[in-house]
Amino acid sequence: MEEVPHDCPGADSAQAGRGASCQGCPNQRLCASGAGATPDTAIEEIKEKMKTVKHKILVLSGKGGVGKSTFSAHLAHGLAEDENTQVHQSGSGWSPVYVEDNLGVMSVGFLLSSPDDAVIWRGPKKNGMIKQFLRDVDWGEVDYLIVDTPPGTSDEHLSVVRYLATAHIDGAVIITTPQEVSLQDVRKEINFCRKVKLPIIGVVENMSGFICPKCKKESQIFPPTTGGAELMCQDLEVPLLGRVPLDPLIGIQEFCNLHQSKEENLISS
């Protein structure tokens, strides 16, 4: 999907769909029709639904493959080993899959007939699903809602920000890797957040160095040739929350725990 133009006037602007920056945007016709400026009743419904959620945090990344989803999972205390990934529907809405007593997860993947199925949806279909996840899922009373968003600055990001605008978003955590090719996209992501008035909690530099388990020497797999996230954050006056190294134990630990749980279940049965 194409990215939203950096000079997008906004769907509720008088110049929506008519400005010079709108040329070539996939949403130009929709914005020009005025449909984007029409009040969406779902916004108030989502606001009411989100009253039981204390904090809403978006996890963003300008570039794909920087470990955003892995970070989101760990930020939400890790997706546990439970394989019960069936979504149930009740009178109060969809019930999220609870992998721990205090950790519920909702994903499009749970709704597919096969984990190998591809999700081939255009913008309106994606936006409709985002609306359903926010409005129709029975989250109950929780402290945090962590939203793992796609890379870039596309329709999905605009939809999430718009739907949660009146419910108060605490802010966004932006994930990057140290090399310039990732930082270039993160600068655009920061620019996007400022344009849509989305508070930035800070930036996390993921895959920041690798320490060999044998010789204990540190190597830079993704060299920070332009100063990495630290210098970028200084230049853009954004907090640097920290660095997460490349650690094979992250994947190995989850894999081992998963299979250990299976073995224990087999033994106990």
Task: Describe the structure concisely.
This protein is α/β, with parallel strands linked by helices and 269 residues long.
What structural keywords apply?
269 residues, alpha/beta, 5-stranded parallel beta sheet, two-stranded antiparallel sheet, 19% strand, disordered C terminus
Describe the structure.
The chain is an alpha/beta fold and 269 residues long. The chain contains eight helices and eleven strands. The strands form four sheets. The protein has a five-stranded parallel beta sheet, sandwiched between helices. It has a two-stranded antiparallel ribbon with strand order 2-3. The longest helix is centred in the last third of the chain and has 21 residues, at 248-268.
Question: How are the SSEs ordered, and which strands pair?
Answer:
Blueprint: H1 28-32, H2 41-49, E1 53-60, H3 68-75, E2 88-90, E3 93-95, E4 97-100, E5 103-105, H4 123-135, E6 142-148, H5 155-164, E7 171-176, H6 180-195, E8 200-206, E9 210-211, E10 218-219, H7 228-236, E11 240-244, H8 248-268
Parallel strand pairs: 1-6, 1-7, 7-8, 8-11
Antiparallel strand pairs: 2-3, 4-5, 9-10
Helix pairs in contact: 4-5, 6-7
